[in-house]
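Quarterly update, task 2.4: nickel (II) ion-bound model.
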Amino acid sequence: MALLEIVTYPDERLKKAAQPVERVDDEIKKLVDDMAETMYAAPGVGLAGNQVGVLKKVVVLDVDYPDGKPNLIVLINPEIVEKEGALTWEEGCLSLPGINEEVQRYAKVKVRALNLDGEPFEIQSEGDVLAVALQHEIDHLDGVVLIDRLSFLKKRMLHKQLVKEKASGAR
Ligand code: NI
């Protein structure tokens, strides 16, 4: 396993759509291992391919680890197949360090994906960090980051702040 470099905003790779994985082979399994190690080391609750500069539809998630034992969820080619309701959740992102903003999301989502054996499965959640994280990570695969979900003015302000910090070498 190896730690990967986490891409930070406004890197272009965060704005691009990831491509579907055609086959869950050893290369994908190694990518998942490295992404999980990188996520736990950060630490964070989720990481999408774009965030390590790999434009493939791969997500690792663990919303339990911070307060308990590891419970890694691997999503390959995830898609939201059901969604309803609304909630507001304060979110952060490893690619947008220092940003914590309230984002409007669906309250309940059902996601279909492939597991590491290449078999389809479904996962759903409602009104909790998992429901939000699923949407946040799938957004990454579509080239969308959390500040894209904010008002135009707020996004513009945070964009300037992040670009300035990056340029000054603060991160
Ligand atoms: Ni993120």
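Highlight for this quarter: The chain has three helices and seven strands.
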